[in-house]
Amino acid sequence: MADTHYLALYRKYRPQTFEDVCGRDAIVRTLKNQITSGRIGHSYLFCGTRGTGKTTIAKIFAKAVNCEHPVDGSPCGECASCKAIAEDASLNVVEMDAASNNGVDDVRGIIDQVAYSPTQGKYRVFIIDEVHMLSGAAFNALLKTLEEPPAYAIFILATTEPNKLPLTILSRCQRYDFGRLSVQTIEDRLKVVCDREGLTCEDKALRYIASAADGSMRDGLSILDQCNAFNYGQGALTYDKVLEILGAVDTRVFSELYEDIAGGKAADALGILDRILAQGRELVQFVTDFLQYLRNVMLLRASEDVAQSLDVSSDNLELLLRDARRSDMNQILHYINVFSELMDEIRYSSNRRVLTEAAIIRLCEPTMATPEGVQEEISTLKERVRVLEQQLAAVSEAAAKGTPVRTAPAAEKAAGKPTEVTKKPAQAVSLTVALSDDIKKIGDRWDAVVGKLPAKYSYLKMALLDGAKPSVTPDGKTLLVVFTDFVSASMLMGDRGKDNREFFEAFLEEQTGVHVPVEYKQLDNAGQVSENHVDIRDIKKIENSGKIQMPIEIE
């Protein structure tokens, strides 16, 4: 016959002494030292997210200050006072939930009880949970008592949102922050519970439960309780069973989805979504977990040094590193923005699947306009306009002084002036040189390399593709980037283009694997590249002739 008085694991294994508490060494040591030295404060504030041990440590502290035989500041658990507090039968410990008792009258009830000294033990401990829920009038009523309580009264205030407490309350309390517990701490505790309960669980399953607990020991034990009930009488609790009961998805699936999205494979990405939904996985949980995966990829792309601080297994870390190394940071941030917006939309939508599919297709289609892409185009246009304005200002200033100025056709056209081009005929000087293998390689891959420039250098990409041609100096050993307009040339020439030059030359060497000297030149008077310089992208003609017949314009 089943036990009708089953106790949930988080209640059954709630720590009863300071030694049982996990992951709170600094707080425990401070409180134990206060008890041992007799320097006990009159008001404490425990801050932290749910399930991190605030109320548990408050009760242990209440037992310790009233224990008849404390051991190194920790309660013995055997005396009458300890047993009474453990059974919630002690008049020395008063608990109040401020979430449902937040008025002035509720606080006055606490104040009235402070007037009575303990009948057994040394202290009366008043624990107010979710204290941030008290009204302003209730805080004012509590303030005087909290500032000057009787010698036997100790107040312990617990809250998940300390920022909502008045400064007058904060300044009167010793504050202890209960941060989220690490995945390893929760996993170790779950292993202890499994051993005591006689449960067989895969390490991978326990680690996923610990990760799903999100820093809360209580949540971890509750999830383990839930999974154990699902797996009752079916042998060991496996990783796949945990994913099934929680409606979660394996990390390998996220890596596959990321790869398909990055590769623009919309059909494959939608197929993965269809498969996980057919398995009964929960869509909100899926989006939440994928956002966490993207967050880890982002951190690793920023610096692989953070790998040790990520709470992931070694197998999952390999997948994350692989995806991070082949991704662009702007691309990752775009994915995070899209899925963050999706997270907000699907919580209250009846068309969750449609919204999720639309988000995936949006990421798989690079031609679709995105806010980031539009912003990049705007930035590029602004940059070009700024350069053009500088050129026009120089032309106007020179014209006012009566100084003849040779300007680029783009500037004259933009200024509304007729463009009169006079070009000296080129004198064909035949130079016979052999084109180096490095120059050939750059010419063969020029368009592909320029096309791979990061999104933040989109203006540079436009300048090199639209307003420049790759050529070579007469000796055939130096790459010569020839510009046909002033705006494109200004991106890489002069003092202003120094940073762009350094970046581009390093990027070119990284992509091609060869290092060659690079020079830059702007053609005067709208000169044509084909009339003055060979275009090294025309590899076939060069290889057929083996030589370059380069007409040189003498200026």
Describe this structure in words.
By secondary structure, the protein is an alpha/beta fold. The chain contains 25 helices and eight strands. The strands form two sheets. The protein has a five-stranded parallel β-sheet, covered by helices on one side. It has a three-stranded mixed β-sheet with strand order 6-7-8. The C terminus is likely disordered.
Envelope shape: elongated
Structural class: alpha/beta
Total E-strand runs: 8
The strands making up the biggest β-sheet line up spatially as: 2-3-4-1-5
Distance between the termini: 105 Å
Number of separate helices: 25
Roughly what is the average pLDDT, rounded to an integer? Answer: 81
Largest sheet: 5 strands, parallel
Which runs of at least 5 residues are low in confidence (pLDDT < 50)? 405-432, 550-555
Helical amount: 40-55%
Radius of gyration using CA atoms only:
36 Å
Beta fraction of the residues?
Answer: 5-15%
Quick structural gist:
The protein is an alpha/beta fold. The protein has helices at 9-12, 25-37, 54-66, 80-86, 104-114, 136-147, 167-170, 183-197, 203-212, 217-230, 239-246, 251-262, 266-278, 283-302, 314-325, 329-346, 352-364, 371-401, 409-414, 437-451, 458-466, 486-490, 498-512, 529-532, 539-545; strands at residues 43-48, 93-97, 124-129, 153-159, 174-178, 468-472, 479-483, 518-522. The strands form 2 sheets. It has a 5-stranded parallel sheet with strand order 2-3-4-1-5, covered by helices on one side. A 3-stranded mixed sheet has the order 6-7-8.
